[in-house]
Amino acid sequence: MFSQAGAQQETAPRVKIDTPSLSGSINLAGARIDDIKLKDYHVTVDPKSPIVTLFSPANTENGYFAELGFVQGENSGKVPGPQTVWTLKSGDTLTPSTPVEISYTNDSGLTFLRTFSIDDNYMITVDDKVTNSSDKQVTVNPYGRITRFNLPDETVGLGSA
C-alpha cells in the first residue's frame, strides 16, 4: 500500500519528453525528472533488447530520479517540495524546440516558475524564478538531488577493453 504522498506521485499529471535521443516524462508532483529512456541504447548488443532506462519513478522497483526544490526560509511560507503538484503553464511536450513552464503559488504571495528546456541530445536545463508579491522580504534556498533506491539489474559496459 502506498502512502498518500506515494499515491500523489503515482497519479499526478506528467509532461512528455521527446527528443531524437530521449523519451520520457516529468512528474508534476515534485517536478521530478523521473522517467528517462535512451532511445539509441539497448540493454544488450541485441537490437531487440529493451532500451536503456536511465530514470524511473520513485514507486518503481529501481526508482531513480532528479529532484529540484526549495528550502523554506524567513517569511517564505510553504515552498514547493517533493509532494507539491505544480501547474502546467505552457507547453505540453518538452522537445528541443518547445520548452515547458510549470508554476506553483503559495499562500504567502510567492510564485515559483520553473522552465525546462532540452537540446537535441541529452542536456536538460532547468531555470527557476521566484516572484514575491507580498510586502515582506523573503528568503528561500534552492536544492537539487539525485535519488536512486537500488543498484540496476543490468550492467552496461562503457568504453573499450
How would you characterize this protein structure?
- The protein is mainly beta and about 160 residues long.
- It has a single domain (about 5-150), classed as Beta-galactosidase, Chain A, domain 5 (Distorted Sandwich).
- About 5% of the residues lie in helices and about 45% in strands.
- Strands 4-3-2-1-7 form a 5-stranded mixed β-sheet, with no helix packed on it.
- Strand 2 and strand 3 (about 30-40) form a beta hairpin.
- The longest helix is centred in the N-terminal third of the chain and has 8 residues, at about 5-10.
- The radius of gyration is 17 Å and the shape is elongated.
- About 20% of the residues are buried.
- Residues about 1-5 have low confidence and may be disordered.
Short characterization:
The chain has one helix spanning 4-11; strands spanning 14-18, 22-27, 32-42, 51-55, 64-72, 87-90, 93-94, 100-105, 110-118, 124-132, 140-148. With 161 residues, it is mostly beta strands.
